[in-house]
Amino acid sequence: MLQGVNLACVRGERELFRDVNFSLAAGSLLQVRGPNGSGKTSLLRMLCGLSNPARGEIRWNGQSIRSGSEEYYASLTYIGHLSGTKDDLTALENLQISSALAGFEITEVQAVAALRQIGLKGRELLPVKVLSQGQRRRVVLARLLVCKTILWILDEPLVALDVAAVGLIQNLLEQHLQQGGMIVMTTHQEIDINAAAITQLQLN
């Protein structure tokens, strides 16, 4: 169970949001919505422990994540809205390195299989700098095929993707939820996902 309790975010002298509350159980999706500058990415970074709320608390299974719970951080995968890929490395190298940095060592065979499943067959050994923005995004999202975490925190995962890729990612997210996973995501696009529960959190 992931909970946000009376969360507030302040940037400089501006308060982006206050009194944000939510609860997320296994098999459920929380869609964070709001205009640019409302604090969507800031909220996701809080959930990942990359920044602290000005007020309030984030809890995992009833305990504050500020306690430095290794269990919590080992349970999540975060993918930001920027690609985070290295231009001079191949798609294969990018996936293997990013997975290793996240604590999941994968073989070349596993990496190739993931890249092909996500629509990059024939491009595994190309440097990322020659790929389109949508293909770069697929390289990043391929991590979801090899990670073993229950909680996915995704910032605009569908950005730059074509219709076919959007459908593929939505199916992947749906499978994760059906297997008891949990997802917190931001997106400006409408999503077509079946889940035990889908909650929208609106930031103004």
Task: Explain the layout of strands and helices.
Elements (H helix, E strand, L loop, with lengths): L1 E10 L2 E11 L3 E6 L6 H8 L7 E6 L2 E2 L5 H5 L1 E4 L11 H11 L6 H10 L15 H9 L1 H4 L4 E5 L7 H16 L3 E5 L10 E6 L2
Parallel strand pairs: 3-8, 3-9, 6-7, 7-8
Antiparallel strand pairs: 1-2, 1-4, 4-5
Helix pairs in contact: 3-4
Question: Would you kindly provide a written description of the structure presented here, covering whatever features stand out?
Answer:
By secondary structure, this protein is α/β, with parallel strands linked by helices. It folds into two domains: 1-75 and 150-204, 3-Layer(aba) Sandwich (Rossmann fold), CATH 3.40.50.300; 85-149. It is 31% helix and 27% strand. It has seven helices and nine strands. The protein has helices spanning 40-47, 70-74, 91-101, 108-117, 133-141, 143-146, 163-178; strands at residues 2-11, 14-24, 28-33, 55-60, 63-64, 76-79, 151-155, 182-186, 197-202. The strands form two sheets. Strands 6-7-8-3-9 form a five-stranded parallel beta sheet, with helices on both faces. The protein has a four-stranded antiparallel beta sheet with strand order 2-1-4-5, with helices on one face. Helix 3 (91-101) crosses helix 4. The radius of gyration is 17 Å and the shape is globular.
